[in-house]
Amino acid sequence: MSGNTETFNFQAEISQLMSLIVNAVYQNKEIFLRELISNASDALDKIRYQSLTDPSVLDSGKDLKITIVPDVANKVLIIRDTGIGMTKADLINNLGTIAKSGTKAFMEMVQETKDASMIGQFGVGFYSAYLVADEVEVISKHNDDEQYIWRSSAGQNFTVTRDTVNEPLGRGSEIRLHLKDDLLEFLEERRIKDIVKKHSEFISYPIHLVYQKEVEKEVPIEETEEAVDEEKDENKAKIEEVDDEGEDKEDKPKTKKVKENETVDEELNQTKPIWTRNPDSIQKDEYNAFYKSLTNDWEDPLAVKHFSVEGQLEFRSILFTPHRAPFDLFEGKKKRNNIKLYVRRVFIMDDCEELIPEWLNFVKGIVDSEDLPLNLSREVLQQNKILKVIRKNLVKKCVDMFTEIAEDKDNFNKFYEAFSKNIKLGIHEDAQNRGKLSEFLRYYSTKSTDEPTSLKDYVTRMPEKQKFIYYITGQSRQAVESSPFLEVLKRKGYEVLYMVDPIDEYAVQQLKDFEGKELKSITKEGLEFEDDEDEKKKFDEQKKELEPLCATMKEILGDKVEKVVVTDMLSESPCVILTGQFGWSANMERIMQSQALRDSGGMSSYMASKRTLGLHPTHPIIRALKAKVAADKNDKTVRDLSNLLYEAALLASGFTLDDPSQFSSRINRMVMLGLSLDDEEAAPAESD
Description:
Layout: E1 6-9, H1 12-23, H2 31-53, E2 66-71, E3 76-81, H3 88-97, H4 102-113, E4 133-141, E5 147-152, E6 157-162, E7 172-179, H5 189-199, E8 207-220, H6 223-233, E9 255-267, H7 284-295, E10 303-309, E11 315-321, E12 339-343, E13 346-349, E14 364-369, H8 378-383, H9 385-406, H10 409-429, H11 434-438, E15 442-443, E16 453-454, H12 455-461, E17 469-473, H13 477-481, H14 486-492, E18 496-499, H15 502-510, E19 513-514, E20 517-521, H16 533-545, H17 547-557, E21 563-566, E22 575-579, H18 586-593, H19 603-607, E23 611-615, H20 620-631, H21 636-652, H22 660-674, H23 679-682
Parallel strand pairs: 2-8, 12-14, 17-18, 17-20, 21-23
Antiparallel strand pairs: 1-6, 2-3, 3-7, 4-5, 4-7, 5-6, 8-9, 10-11, 11-14, 12-13, 15-16, 19-20, 22-23
Helix pairs in contact: 1-4, 10-15
């Protein structure tokens, strides 16, 4: 055999690459099997394409498959395919002397990240074999050449020998990995199955695992053996069994149990890629089973969308909406593991952030592209135009899926309860689909107290003269239902939506209108109603009449309020705090103050609500306070009452008090007045 052996030097870059792989410590060594199976699949593709024009190329073997054989005794893992095979020249060129264009790029990336999992995406996947093996042999037979053995221990050179010792392959390649002593786990049946399931489950060709399994069998005892056994038992006490049925036991041959090794040939990828089939031919049960195997969820999905895109770009996808949201849906450091990306049925990655926006992080499924290159680094992904088109299509199909869910009221209620935050986040982030997503919003309102209403239904109930969609934001439904801002709107018969989810504040800032109707917050100033001339004239007179009171209260409150005005927003409460049209609402201010890492100056102080104290002109308290101011505006009671009214209005309007102890002191003084006590009487008596 040595006479036929030729030795060749590796091309310099390949030699460096192998040195890097052999000597460095990588966490994810299992990817070697994914790369070698992908290479085998490519070789099978090539022979299949050749056979389309020349069927005779399959005369050397019609069975297209990949076989994995762990040889535990010799510490060798064998990966065999019946693909196109390699000629002697191919072995020399492809595996040693001609460096792939991605070799240098891969080495730079791997030195930076210490992550070898992307090796196949640089076109040098074969060399990942050296992650686990000291020596690699490649036995290959091409239809146009003899069978050859390529062998290397990852040094400076490799040998190519004409094969006269191994069984003829017929056609194809067999890779023998002589595993390192600390990596013999890759010979274990369970380990191989797990890796194939994770990375190569949907390869187009069958992947067989041929392994030895110890089984227990019953074999008849031979006469000589039986005689020996009887001699051994002579000195032992015998226990006779009573045969109730009187069967003749001598007719039954005596047997014993022995352990034998049995060769098992198991196909590992029997789950065929369901997404390649016509959706019309797939039953609901099949989708459910595929979803469960994909996600490990115990429940069936709420909805499924199976589609393919053809034309300039070609890809297939199945998307699922789960029944319930995971508990860590918005966990910041959670790995995004919901859309698996395949390229021509080879699994590439499951955390591709460019594939789907964050607001759709609950949607699960797969995307299988025919056009994406296999040399996908994360940098390439970020700039890849194909990926941008795929993303746009996925978002559109997700919205279509939600529209289908909305046709069934019960299903939509489940969906909205689980994923309403995601829809609102989508409205905040996705300008292109904002209008469509707004159709999915549901809110309780002053007229819809039993079940949430959609914006579409709200618009159909609007009186003719109502121009805006009115809403109020707050901490809870109970808090907003008793808000003083609702008083006049209820009286006028206008419906107000209750937005009590913190994310509503963000969503409504972006959602300016719905079907041409502008959304208006009723807690902000500038809210006007269609009043007749008499009402307007009467209101103007009341404003003029209360000007002295407004000026005095502004003077007392100082910088606490931007201004004090007369408002027609109230019918029962004496006063309310309105916020500026373009600043934060009271609820938004509360949300921002609750942020653990908030900016206490800068943007926060700029966006903080400009507070306006609005007075109800006909309320008895306001009329009495006006009379007191007219009598003596420096009266201490006026100062106390003004501050107390302001602080009570703050609480009623959803703000928090700047100084609760002062408010408490004022309440105590009011209680003392009510009980006709002076300051001295109120002081607690000292014990003797």
